[in-house]
Structure formats: structure tokens, C-alpha cells
Write a structure and sequence with these properties.
6-stranded mixed beta sheet, Rossmann fold, about 525 residues, 3 domains, 4-stranded mixed beta sheet, disordered C terminus
Length: about 525
């Protein structure tokens, strides 16, 4: 996932991670990427919420993702090997570790022997499929596996693991130090095992003919516990160094598989999400990340992936160009797709900056220094503070986290007070953010606020409006347009009450007689400018 460092699956998250996840509906994306595996969900969450800011680093991940999209079976097979390696290591008992160093030695041997065949399986995948991958990340991984885990090396490792079982005993040397105490303990290479009947016979003849004076043997009695303990201490002195080295080797191999699982897990999550969207016929695209200073956003067919995953059918995409427009104001009809569009913008920004594809037909945008959200919340049931106080408190926390180049998404902020006061507060906040070099998307029903920006900064801002057809139907698209003084709440009123109209009319006709005509209350339009 990185060219020069490892991904940290347990690293910290931004302070606003919880709010951003809630406001942008990211849990649905994380669940789709996890496909029921909690580990994949956590990897996806950390990768998406701690994105990159360098277009070159994003491009490095995107090239790896392109390989994964073309060779999903190979990637999933490698991920399965990493998962199996960690499961094997977990199943190996560790209760003997209190018998240091012998316990550490034997557990490390068990771990390495269990993982040796899985290293060989990875090497075979590298040999079989290296030509099918073009990204720098996979090319380097496969080259390393092929060079460092060749068959001769793995056979040598297997032989050394057998030797380190010390089935023929431990051979070590020592010298006498002060007070006739042992010093300079060194573990020696065991004698070569004599193979074959003839070899064993020759060795026996040689031992018989050897002078007894050339052999010094001390045999510990069966009941001599002190002698056995002293002999065990001598053995441990010889094994301490090799046990420590072998323990480090085992940890290194296990760490390799753990990191391989985490980094491949991110791309397996990408494949899971791709499969879910592809099953519905939804488009995806590899975005083009641009430097922050270019201040560019060009999208076609951008849609809310979280909404799509929760519906049976496809969702409507949008086409927007907001180059050098640091402020985007979105107004229009109630339930016309305003919040959905802004949520799709936030999702796409995060997905692009973590190196993933985005839910769109095409996407080109500048990276940002972070995504922050300020959405309206339900009123505090404990009544510890009013809604406006709560909004101001969250805005203060947001301002503490914002930095130059951030993307701030405001949804109905400061709508909890009257229009005049809410517009005045929002205007000052937005202007301060713009002066600080922050890009702002604002969904609002505050006509005074939107119209004020439209009069004062028509070229520095982009004004979008949720499209409404002449008959009141919503297309769920946003189009460029001047803010209107109504949100057409009456459309919703008419739709809701029209559904109940036949039953109500029948009841009314029965009460007034067959010649009476009932006029539905929804037929009366509210005054222009009224928002329902």
C-alpha cells in the first residue's frame, strides 16, 4: 500500500472520523468491503479515513488496484494463504514459553515448520503469475518472493529446522573461568548423523577401538535431581543464543504474513465492493487525482454508493464541473437529492484519496487536506442545550480541525434558528472558511443566505439546484441554477394527502350526500417563499 513503508492497521484515526462516517453513510461501504469479515472492515475503515494527499502516492495504489481488478482470483488466493498462516501460528501452543529457552526454541521451530510450506506456496504463485501483474507494488513483491525463497533456500531452511530439534543431544563447548566456573559457552554444530547399516557398523567399530582415556563421560544418576538440574542449566546456556535468534526469525515470518494479510485485505475489500456494485450494474472508475492547488472537480455519473447498496435498483448519477469554485451552494426542492449528492461528493473524495475507485462514470479532482462534515442532528433528548448551541459547539470543534485545503460539507447547518439569524451566522462561518483556503459545499434552505452569496459572489461560487419538473416530480439530479425562494414542500404535502384522498372523499360523500364535492386541502398553495 506504500512504496517505502508498511500500512498500520492499528493506527490512529482523525478526530472527526465518527462524524464523517455517520454523515457520509460510510458504514454501508465498510460492510460491503468486509463481506462479513470483521478484520476486512477494520482495515477498510482505517484506509479510507486516513487517506493520502500526494497524487503520486495515490497513483501507486491505483496501479496495484488495477492489477487486483484484473487478477482477483490470484489476489484472493494470496490473501487466503496469509490468513491460513496466521491461523496456524495461533493454533500452536505457547504454554512451554515459561521453560526458557527450550520452550521458546521448540515453539519457534513449530511455527517456522508450519509456515515453511506456505512460503513455498507464495513463491509458486509469484513464479506462475508475475508476468500478469504490471504495478510496481506487485512486481517488487513477486521479485522478492522469487529471489529470497527459491527452492534451494527453502530446503536448506527445512534441514536446519530438523537439525535444531537436537534429537542427538546438544553439543557445546565452554572454558573454565575464575573459581572454576564455566564461561564462554558456545553451541557447536552437531556431529553428522551416520547413515546406513555399514556406516553405523564402522562407527561402532571405531568406538570400540578407541582408547578409554580419550573419552570423558559423566553419567547422572536417575535420582540425582541436583545433577539433572545442573545439566539442564548447562543445556540452557548453550540454547539461549539460538533460541533467541530463532524466536526473532519466527516473529519476522509471522509479521510478514500479518502485514501481507492487512495490505492484501484492503484490496480484497476493494474487490468485494466492486462485486457488489457490479452486480447492480453500477459504474465505477479509477479517478484522476490532481494536486491540491489546482482546485478542480469534474465528475460525470457520480452517485451515492451507500444509497445504492441499500436499494434494489440503481440510483441517479450527477454531472458537475466546479473548477476554481471554492464554494458550492446546493438548494432546491425537498427530497430532491441535495443531501444525497453532497454525500456522494464526500464519499468519492475519501475513496479517491485512499487509492480506491469511485462510484462514477468519470472523476477528476484535486486532493484535499481532509474531509470534515457538519450535518444537522436530532434534538438532544436530555435538553442539556438547545439545537443552536449544539450546532455552534460542533462547528467550533470542526474549526479546530480544519486546515488550508480541507473540504467541509455543511448540510442544513444553522437551520435550527430563524432564517435571518441562521443566515447571518452561516455567512460569517463560510466566509471565514473560504478566506482560510477551505473548499465548502453547503446544502441549505436558507434563501437569504443562498441568494446573498448569489448576488455577491456569482463567479466565485457554483450554485446547484435539485431539479424539479413542472408537474412536481423530482429527477434526483442537481443542475446549475439560481437559488429559489421555495423548497416546494407543498409537493410533498399534496403527494402524501393525495394518496389518502379517495378514501377521504368516499367518507365525505357519505356524510354530505352524493351531490357534494369535497375539495382536498392540498389544492391550496402556500404563499411564495414559504418552506414546509
Amino acid at each position: 500500500m506504500f512504496r517505502d513503508r508498511d500500512f498500520d492497521p492499528k493506527g490512529g484515526l482523525p478526530p472527526a472520523a465518527a462524524a464523517v462516517t455517520q454523515d457520509l453513510g460510510l458504514d454501508a461501504l465498510f460492510d460491503a468491503m468486509a463481506a462479513g469479515e470483521e478484520f476486512l472492515r477494520e482495515v477498510a475503515r482505517r484506509a479510507v479515513l486516513t487517506g493520502l494527499r500526494d497524487p503520486a502516492e495515490i497513483g501507486y495504489r491505483q496501479s496495484i488496484l488495477a492489477d487486483c481488478l484484473e487478477q482477483p482470483a490470484v489476489v484472493r488466493e494470496m490473501y487466503a494463504i496469509a490468513v491460513e498462516a496466521l491461523e496456524r501460528e495461533r493454533r500452536i501452543w505457547g504454554w512451554t514459553l515459561n521453560r526458557y529457552p527450550e520452550g521458546l526454541l521448540h515453539r519457534s521451530l513449530d511455527v517456522l515448520e508450519a509456515l515453511l510450506e506456505l512460503l513455498r506456496a507464495l513463491r509458486r504463485i509469484a513464479e506462475a503469475h508475475s508476468r500478469e501483474f504490471r504495478s510496481a507494488g506487485f512486481t517488487r513483491l513477486f521479485a522478492t518472493l522469487a529471489q529470497e525463497l527459491d527452492e534451494a533456500y527453502l530446503e536448506k531452511v527445512r534441514g536446519e529446522l530438523v537439525r535444531l530439534r537436537f534429537r542427538e543431544g546438544v553439543l557445546l563447548s565452554a572454558a573454565l573461568g575464575a573459581g572454576h566456573k564455566g564461561t564462554r559457552y558456545v553451541l557447536r554444530k552437531p556431529r553428522e548423523t551416520v547413515q546406513g547399516l555399514l556406516g553405523r557398523l564402522q562407527a561402532w567399530v571405531g568406538q570400540v577401538g578407541a582408547s578409554e582415556k580419550s573419552r570423558y563421560v559423566y553419567q547422572v544418576a536417575d535420582r540425582d535431581e541436583a545433577g539433572l538440574q545442573a545439566l539442564g542449566e548447562l543445556r540452557n546456556r548453550g540454547l539461549a543464543g539460538v533460541a533467541g535468534a530463532l524466536g526473532q526469525s519466527a516473529d519476522h515470518v509471522v509479521g510478514f504474513f500479518a502485514m501481507l494479510r492487512a495490505e492484501l485485505g484492503f484490496y480484497v475489500g476493494c474487490l468485494n465492493l466492486r462485486d457488489r456494485l457490479a452486480a447492480k450494474g453500477e459504474p465505477i472508475t479509477i479517478p484522476r487525482p490532481l494536486p491540491q492547488e489546482e482546485d478542480t472537480l469534474r465528475v460525470r455519473g457520480l452517485y451515492d454508493a451507500a444509497l445504492s447498496l441499500s436499494l434494489a435498483g440503481r440510483v441517479v448519477g450527477n454531472e458537475v464541473s466546479a473548477d476554481h469554485r471554492p464554494l458550492v451552494v446546493i438548494t432546491g426542492a425537498n427530497r430532491g437529492g441535495k443531501t444525497t449528492f453532497m454525500r456522494s461528493v464526500g464519499q468519492a473524495q475519501l475513496l479517491m484519496q485512499c487509492g480506491l475507485f469511485v462510484p462514477a462514470e468519470s472523476y477528476e479532482g484535486s486532493v484535499c487536506a481532509g474531509v470534515l462534515t457538519h450535518y444537522k442532528r436530532e434534538e438532544d433528548p436530555g435538553m442539556r442545550s438547545g439545537k443552536l448551541d449544539e450546532e455552534l459547539g460542533r462547528m467550533s470543534a470542526l474549526i479546530d480541525q480544519v486546515r488550508r485545503g480541507s473540504l467541509v460539507l455543511l448540510n442544513e447547518s444553522f437551520a435550527s434558528t430563524n432564517e435571518r439569524e441562521g443566515s447571518q451566522i452561516a455567512r460569517q462561518v463560510v466566509r471565514a472558511l473560504l478566506e482560510a483556503g477551505v473548499r465548502v459545499f453547503y446544502v441549505t434552505h436558507l434563501h437569504d443566505l443562498a441568494q446573498g452569496f448569489y448576488r455577491e459572489e456569482p463567479r466565485a461560487a457554483l450554485f446547484l439546484r435539485a431539479e424539479r419538473l413542472s408537474d412536481g416530480r423530482r429527477t434526483f439530479r442537481v443542475v446549475e441554477g439560481e437559488p429559489l425562494p421555495t423548497s416546494y414542500g407543498v409537493d410533498l404535502y399534496q403527494r402524501i394527502f393525495r394518496e389518502a384522498q379517495p378514501q377521504d372523499e368516499a367518507r365525505a360523500a357519505g356524510e354530505r350526500g352524493p351531490d357534494s364535492a369535497a375539495r382536498p386541502a392540498a389544492a391550496v398553495d402556500p404563499p411564495v417563499g414559504e418552506r414546509v
